[in-house]
Design brief:
Order of helices and strands: HEEEEEEE
CATH topology: Immunoglobulin-like
Oligomer: single chain
Low-confidence stretches: 23-31
Number of domains: 1
Mean pLDDT: 81
Strand order of the largest sheet: 4-3-6-7
Number of helices: 1
Structural class: mainly beta
Largest sheet: 4 strands, antiparallel
Shape: globular
Number of strands: 7
Distance between the termini: 32 Å
Amino acid sequence: MINFKARGNLALLESTGYPLVGGNAKGRRGKKGITLEAGANLVDVSFRGSEEAGAYVVEYTEAPVTAESRWDYMVTKFTYVTVTGLQTGHKYAFKVAGIVDDKAPVFSEPVISKFVE
């Protein structure tokens, strides 16, 4: 966990590229409402969209999430994606961020899938 204070300078915090926690900047909160449906070597990911976002980044990694986890990603203009090529019997963590102009994405908390079939 990184703890960084910018004394109210949101632009400075966003420039770090790390997910932001707390605060109340409109349109900059992490996405909630992520739904996962595991299937045969895949997981369908759907989520609530944002009017401000022109696209979304969906990141995923094998669970449990650790500091050494390597996150893969997909970019989409839709509020759903199907992530394929996953290993049977494994769980995966997913997080989503809206892409808003040139601002750093603010990711949701990771959501863990059921076992992939």
